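SEQUENCE-TO-STRUCTURE ENTRY
===========================
Question of interest: how does this chain fold, as expressed in C-alpha cells?
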Amino acid sequence: MTDTFQFKLLATDGKARRGEVSMPRGTIRTPAFMPVGTVGTVKAMYLDQVRELGADIILGNTYHLMLRPGPERVARLGGLHELIRWPFPILTDSGGFQVMSLSGLRKLDEQGVTFKSHVDGALHHMSPERSIEIQGLLDSDIQMQLDECVALPASPKEIERAMEMSLRWAERCKVAFGDQPGKAMFGIVQGGDIPHLRVRSAEALSGLDLKGYAIGGLAVGEPQEVMLDMIDTTIPHLPTEKPRYLMGVGTPDDMLKSVARGIDMFDCVMPTRSGRHGLAFTRRGRINLRNARHAEDMRPLDEESTCPAARDYSRAYLHHLVRANESLGGMLLTWNNLSYYQDLMAGIRKAIEEGRFADFMAQTQEMWARGDLAPL
C-alpha cells in the first residue's frame, strides 16, 4: 500500500501484462476481476467471502447508490467502505450507463442528463460535476468520468456525437475531481465500432494525463470479434504506464482474449447473475444446473476446486435447490462462479509472470472445449 495512486508493470508476455495498482486502501493485482457490488452488496455473497476468494477491489454503482440510500447519507455514515464493511479499494462507475439503460425518461444535453428514477419516478439531474461529487461523497478510490454510452448498432453520426460529448465531459470531470491524493479518476474511451473514432477518443483522453483509462461502450450487443477489434484499435493509443480497464466484460473467454491484447482490469455481473439463474462456470466450461441430467448425480461440480460450493455439494443437491427456487442455490453457484473467476485471474497472473501465457490460454480453452463430465 502507498499514500499515492501508483501503477507498476511487473512482467509482460507478448501484449499480456502483469502489474499492480497501489493505493492507500490496498494493492490491486492485475489482471484483475472486480466483482460487481451495485448497491453496496455483491449479490448473494458475504463480502468476507468475496475477499477470501481473492478479490482486491469491488465495484459500486453511482446511479443506484445515488437513488438509495443517497450519497449524502452514505457520507454521513462514514462513506461506502465503512457502511458495507469493505476496507479495501472500491471503484465506482459514473452512472452514465444506467441512466441510458434503465431510465424510462431522460433528456440529454451539454450540461448533463435529466432522468426519471426507475425506483420512484422522481426526476434527477446528473452533470459531470455532480457525478464526481457523488463518487466523492461515496469515498470511492477509483472514480469514473461521466460518459454517454451508445448501444450498438447505432449510426456513425450518433456514435460520433456521443464520443465527442464524452470527451468534453471528461475534461469537466477532471476539473471537478481536482487533486485527491491516493485516489484516481479514469477516462472512458468511446467510439462504438468505428475505429477512427476510437483512436480519436483514446488520443484525446491520453492528452488529459489521467491516472487510468477504460474502454467503454463494448459488450453491449456486438459480436465478440468486433469487441476484440476495437481493443486492438484502441490499446496502441493509450499510455503503456497507465492501467487499462475494459468495462462490463465479461465471459471467461472474453477476459482471456482481452488480457492477450493488453487489458488489465475487468468487471461484469455475469458470474453473480448467472449463479442466481442456475448457471455455473467451471474449468470444464458452463454447466446448467437446471438440466434434468443432474437430478441424481451425486458428483460435485469440480472435485479439484478449492471452493466448497464446487467441491463439497453434489450436482443433485444444486439441481434441487435451483429447481425449487431456493436462495441457497443462487448463493452456492454465485460462490462457485466468483471463485472460478478469481482462480482464472490468479492463473493468468502466474502464467504471465512465468512467460507461458499463450500455453495457459490454449490449455484453458482446450479444457472448456472438452466440456462437462459425461452424464451418469
User: Anything to note?
Assistant: The chain has a mean pLDDT of 95. The two ends are 50 Å apart (CA to CA). DSSP finds 15 helices and 16 strands in the chain. The first strand starts at residue 6 and ends at 13.
